[in-house]
């Protein structure tokens, strides 16, 4: 459930477009902050009912000073139903205020590029990066708020 | 919150297409059953978190012998994000087993035909029809399960 | 799960004392109203988390004009911990506003008199009486709000 | 909401009796572990619905190797309803498996001794002690699981 990808700085995200941010974000530019990245799909029930509310709670509890909460829309199924325009409507209706990246589609297959690069098993997946940009946790599925809080506490300590 | 539309049999739905049913359904053909029709939009948060689970609970509790639970996808905003293909993906991912009608779009405006005909204020709206096909309740917004149960109990009595 | 006790008027409750009412209540005096009686124990977790909130919701939804919501404290275990003084503290802390009867203890055994007379299997049990004072439903355990609502709807119809 | 009591090791608890432990526990003997102490009352609704389930979740998530979860029954009202025998029944019915201390009553007033010594404002209060036995957090009222997790994460780091 929790596998570190690498020991050095994690690879950058491959992103087709960003929502809720004036310009593209990179792990390099976020160095110094803890980064919580939620890979999700807008039509994934567990993402909608648990992961995205958890992401909102995280931002509300820890603020934006030491932590960056990001979404990564990693569509690997129902591509026609979850394009950029649909995502924009979803982000608006669900009042998502944090930056959301659209994972770069791969013309050769259903799995988008960042999802493949990070070997994600599905959505939701929560990835936690430390202040040095290293991937410290990659958690697939529904995670208890207290567990996520404890990992955040250790990274923010 | 609860306004009867008419005293006689309610007007038929205007439907572009149906999901989860071998053929079109009509109020006339459902005469003899109580009909619970949930007007919803797939990107409406209250529909997803409350109305559709309530519709599933209704079908599980009362069965299909005396009751027909139906969905009506009445899209009046974000039309490009909630087309038929997106709805099919949504119905699949959310394990919706009851028939779902796609409200007939109106080429002259954003509000689809059945929504306009029934003067719905938004989504979710629960419409309850008695065994004679008369609209008895039209309830906009989040409704307590116990209230809905009591209305069902009276109609099924 | 649902067994009618009798076909005629139900036997009266045997009650040691009442809380939240100026005088004793009887089924005979409540004739004309639907009566929802929740048998509970103050240290029964399912009673506290589900049955009593449901009783409050019932009173809030249907009011006191056609319906009487009552509690029946039927202690059959941990008697020393659930005496009248403890119950009064519980009723105060949990903001229970409806009348609560203390089931008459039986000097010869742990099961109090009304519980025995009505052959209750445990707590919580919801008993629903129609306007003629007949016991129509006796439901042991956690009941879905929608189911309870539908039974209420039929009895109030 | 969060006030450290002292900078040095915290004062020991004054305890009339312990449940769920073969012998008395002391902060001194728990040195080396993080200690999470939940002050509660068995008839306090917020304690029952939120704090005690949170204490159970904490033990389930973090185990007993590095963390000691304890209850402190600090009765300051309804004393007759919350005596040791009642508490034992409560602990049994609510399946509380961690050690629970009964705060030493004060013959001169309603507030028990540990509650007074730690200046608790009411129940529930969560007190977190670090591995050196220092009180690091004293949190009155309902606390978000993620917040509690983050404090635990920092103390366990």
From TrEMBL, chains A, B, C, D:
A UniProt-annotated Pfam family: AhpC-TSA
UniProt-listed InterPro entries: AhpC/TSA, Thioredoxin-like_sf, Thioredoxin_domain, Thioredoxin_ResA/DsbE_sf
Transmembrane regions listed in the UniProt entry: none
Domain Thioredoxin: 4-157
Superkingdom in the source lineage: Bacteria
Record protein name field: Redoxin domain-containing protein
Organism: Massilia phyllostachyos
Lineage, top ranks: Bacteria, Pseudomonadati, Pseudomonadota, Betaproteobacteria, Burkholderiales
